């Protein structure tokens, strides 16, 4: 696991010193080693920088940038099946001098060109300079586990694993994109391909960029898309056959993620996803696997006792730590450094703390991310389908009637938790009558209308992957369409961003074994009735887990992995809202209106306000103070 950064400067105003500065800004991602490649050719200056976290082949033979023939590469990630690819390439006459997957990547590229990526099982972002063909290629893995940003303006392209590297280059202009700021406020993350800055993008998962050095042309190409697999005909197999095949794929994927030359552990929440990873791996190991959990004194948020029950039953080497309001206060000012564009998932604090805890004993940690998105674990899927089941005419009538009445004028109900927002969401859902649009609205913490009220500048609401329903064919029922969309939105830009930055901030490699592309390719072709079966969400995964852990241990209400921010920010952490959402401060910034002050005052006075709205705005304010 590593960090990469660099530039292709057609103006030739860059330097090797700038390249080193950009690269060293990512030292947390790769504290073990660093290297740079700088070339001034006929067309541009090409700079490739690498920070290394040594996981495979700890020797100097794994050093990057790495070269072979006309290729030079910087690579962040892991190719788990590199040994099998090595055998294929050896049969074709290639020789290897290291045990590094980077060398395999280079020689696979020499053999198969851009089709090499089709052979990879893994997570990756890499940039490859092809000297003979005078081009630079930028790749990101299928699910988007590993990040890759790029900035292209006025003849200079910058790239990096994290935005913070761009601030070290004189060509970077840090201009906030207000359309994208509105997206952040709505979702609490920036949906791909957008970023908080103008001219700055995330490379979309399953895509690569080709930059022609001769004419400066930058083209994006798709090599994999989960939608293509959802659009395949559904498999005609029994539920039991589906369970059996899924378990085989899970075992294979999990085993691949244990390949390492350093100690490996697991994040264990006690929920089905992390328990599946732990149970299957512990069943194949004679040694106790190290597991890690974060808990809280506030019992409504505390999963630690359930995680310990699972750990005790499976016999893991378990470590837990309890998180307090003080821990959160200590971390708050680190968040803009860790998440260097606004990111407001309310579990960033426990995710960072569990990463920090794991790093004391291991250098690699597996998580259960993607179980909910692939196997239909979230209640939002049920709500999106159920809300739009009633006849279309009735939905239109209800939406129209709701538009005539302000929610503030409805007695009793207007005192309920977050009522105005929920009222407007239902009106919008029934207006469009689509489960996919319903999930988009459900996913917004601040609605588009509210964002317009809170921001001083108007904005264009940009198209995102929430708006791809038309790309999913009629072979998909509403639930399978929702799963495809969630894979490309919430999973990608919320969950994977959260874990990547939190783990990398402490020099820990995070691995998401359920995101092995073979799993989603298979499960996407299963009927949705296998995923929510007899009213039970995530049925296939639960059936598998119950083979290893008794249902009595697992059968409990699902708790989200959240910090008790709603409690702490009305008490111990109240001063943050008073300082960062101060009226004078907001007026001087010119970004937010007085409506934000009204929202803050209503929340602090005890009214039933959704705390996530204020958390999103606070996170932006903390970010702006650090980076602007």
Task: List the uncertain runs.
Answer: none
The CA-CA distance between the termini, in Å, is: 29 Å
Strand proportion: 15-25%
Strand tally is 17
Describe the largest sheet: 6 strands, antiparallel
Shape: globular
Q: Strand order, biggest sheet?
A: 2-3-1-9-8-10
* SS summary, helix count: 27
> Which radius of gyration do the C-alpha atoms yield?
24 Å
Give the averaged pLDDT, no decimals: 93
Class by helix and strand content?
Answer: alpha+beta
**Percent range of helical residues:** 40-55%
Keywords: ATP-binding, Glutamine amidotransferase, Ligase, Nucleotide-binding
GO molecular function, one term: asparagine synthase (glutamine-hydrolyzing) activity
Pathway: Amino-acid biosynthesis; L-asparagine biosynthesis; L-asparagine from L-aspartate (L-Gln route): step 1/1
Family: Belongs to the asparagine synthetase family.
What does this 3D model show about the protein?
There is one protein chain. With 628 residues, the chain is α+β, with helices and mostly antiparallel strands. It contains 27 helices and 17 strands. It has a six-stranded antiparallel β-sheet, covered by helices on one side. Helix 8 links the parallel strand 14 (290-296) and strand 15 (317-323).
